[in-house]
Write a structure and sequence with these properties.
The strands form 2 sheets. The protein has a 7-stranded mixed beta sheet with strand order 8-9-7-10-13-12-11. It has a 6-stranded parallel beta sheet with strand order 2-1-3-4-6-5, with helices on both faces. α3 (61-69) links the parallel β3 and β4. The chain folds into 2 domains: 5-115 and 294-307, Rossmann fold (3-Layer(aba) Sandwich), CATH 3.40.50; 117-291, Dihydrodipicolinate Reductase, domain 2 (2-Layer Sandwich). 32% of the residues lie in helices and 21% in strands. It is built from 10 helices and 13 strands. By secondary structure, it is of the alpha/beta class.
């Protein structure tokens, strides 16, 4: 059997560049991209996507929809790294650790939508707890997350690494209208009855994310405490290769959360911090927004799909 052809459409952005870098020396696939002069040629892009086995789309939402619409070859499989299809029922959500059997669904899917960076952490924390009935589906969830500036794509990299870098802000909260495009994705895949309050921010570091979710125990199911929440997450991810749950015995020694701790990896660390004095618990996720939050997740999904051939 010949090596499968993998086509990256949009390999000049932050996600596409990393995917290309991590795949270019692999001998089990034939990696193709378009020359600079052909990237905006719709006919050439359509020819390339219909000639491949698996297409990885690293495009803006509208361009991703446009690319999918050009597919006429029923054998072409797609991994879409944009947010265009993340809540669509006919696309498989590409978070292998999200639920039992999800990795198998991805492996056999024709259309896979890569999770957003922030939703990876939020869903990773919340879905197991909501599914287990430990957090009510109508709990007023509040999420705060700080990402490296590469989360803005090339515009963020240019602001912090370009000629005007000296004047770039050290920290900025955005999404103040509380209508971030990731909110519906989080609500749907975490199993929430209502949209969470999601407050994102950028820091003056290139990549990495810290995402936190505070909980009031009085609003949870009776008898639920930090140990209960931790035990649920630990069970859910016990066999996961890329998601680790910090042992509860170690959380008391943690005084700071470093968003850059897992940069360069496809791993995510989840933690539970019981605040027994006031009956509160803090959930946290730390991971690389360009790793488990983007390119690493796409390659993980690609490997699952290749293994099913």
């Amino acid at each position: 059997m010949s090596s499968p052809i993998v086509f990256i459409d949009g390999d000049q952005g932050t996600t596409g560049l990393l995917i290309h870098e991590r795949l270019r020396n692999r001998t089990d696939i034939r990696l193709i991209t378009l020359a600079a002069a052909e990237r905006k040629d719709l006919q050439r892009r359509a020819e390339a996507i219909n000639a491949c086995d698996i297409a990885i789309l690293c495009l803006p939402d509208a361009a991703a929809r446009e690319a999918v619409a050009t597919i006429v070859n029923p054998a072409v499989r797609v991994i879409d790294a944009s947010s265009a299809h993340r809540t669509q029922p006919d696309w498989t959500y590409g978070f292998p650790e999200m639920a039992p059997g999800q990795a198998e669904k991805i492996a056999n899917a024709r259309r896979v939508t890569n999770p957003g960076c922030y939703p990876t952490g939020a869903i990773g924390l919340l879905r197991p707890l909501v599914q287990a009935g430990l957090i009510p589906g109508d709990y007023p969830i509040s999420i705060h997350a700080v990402s490296g500036y590469s989360g803005r794509g090339r515009a963020g990299v240019e602001e912090y690494e370009g000629p005007g870098a000296a004047s770039a802000p050290s920290y900025q909260v955005y999404g103040l209208e509380l209508a971030h495009k990731h909110t519906p994705e989080i609500q749907q895949h975490a199993g929430l009855a209502q949209p969470p309050i999601f407050v994102p921010a950028y820091g003056a570091f290139r990549q990495g994310i810290v995402l936190t979710v505070p909980l009031a125990l009085r609003l949870l199911a009776p008898g639920v405490d930090g140990a209960t929440l931790h035990a649920c997450l630990a069970r859910h991810y016990a066999e996961a290769d890329h998601v680790q749950v910090l042992p509860l015995s170690e959380s008391s020694a943690v005084k700071h959360l470093d968003p850059q701790l897992l940069n360069g990896t496809n791993d995510m660390r989840l933690s539970v911090f019981p605040g027994t004095e006031h009956g509160h618990v803090l959930l946290s996720a730390v991971f690389d927004n360009l790793g488990k939050g983007a390119s690493g997740a796409a390659i993980q999904n690609l490997n699952l799909m290749l293994a099913s051939r």
